Every structure is written in C-alpha cells, then in structure tokens.
Amino acid sequence: MNMLLVSNGTLAESLIESMHNFFSKPDIRSICFQYGNTGAARTELKQYFSERLTTKDKSFIILCDMFGNTAFNETILLLHELGIQKQALIICGMNLPMVFKLYGLKDYSNIELCRSIYEQSEDRGIILCNPAEFLEQVHGEMDCG
Q: Domain named PTS EIIA type-4: which ranges (predicted)?
C-alpha cells in the first residue's frame, strides 16, 4: 500500500522527520497545507497520486491530522476527481504511534486490515473515512431532486 500523511500546518512533515530516527529512508510522503499554499499543496497531492497510479500497488492509506479540515477536504475531493476513492482509506487523528504501526504493516496488509485496527477508536479521537462512502453520503445530502 502507498502511505501518505496530510495535515494543516507541518505536523505531517514533523512525523516523517521523527521516522528518520528509526528508518534510513522511509517510503512515505507528507503533504502540508498551510495558509497561502493550498493550490501548491493540491498540485503536489495530485502529482503524488498520479505517480503512484502508474505502479503495481494502487491502494492508499492516508493519515490526516483532522477530519473536515482543508487537508482532509482537498484529499477527498482529489480522490474523487481522479476516480480512486474506492482504493483509499483516510484515518483522521494521526499520531506518531499510529504512523509507526501502519508503516510496519503497509507492505504486508490491505485497507481492510488497517480499517479493522482502528474501527472502534472514535472515542479516542480517531475517525475512519471510506472516501467512496463519504462522498456518496455527501452527494445524497446535496441532492435536492
């Protein structure tokens, strides 16, 4: 699986910097949305997905700092735009132990296993988001016909 960290501010980048203390070259990316760079960050995100879609593994585990913020919204909209929302899982509420755990599993598991680890974690501030289901629900609520 491809693993990506997205955040408002530099949290995603900081978590990857921490990983460098344990892994020489972790195969993980971060994209940070900051005031004034949303367009550039969205372009970087689109390039990331486009590059990964040319590889063998086309599934994505995306860790996000917060549900509903700019990083989350731009990511889910781009997944939809590229038609890959069924190939991704977004987990909101990322933290360093979560990054380490999922990084250790990413090459040996699938989206469903990652989902099962955090299914009962909402009371601890962790929200799972299936982009396909989320977009279907939002679209249904906006349908006035």
A: 1-126
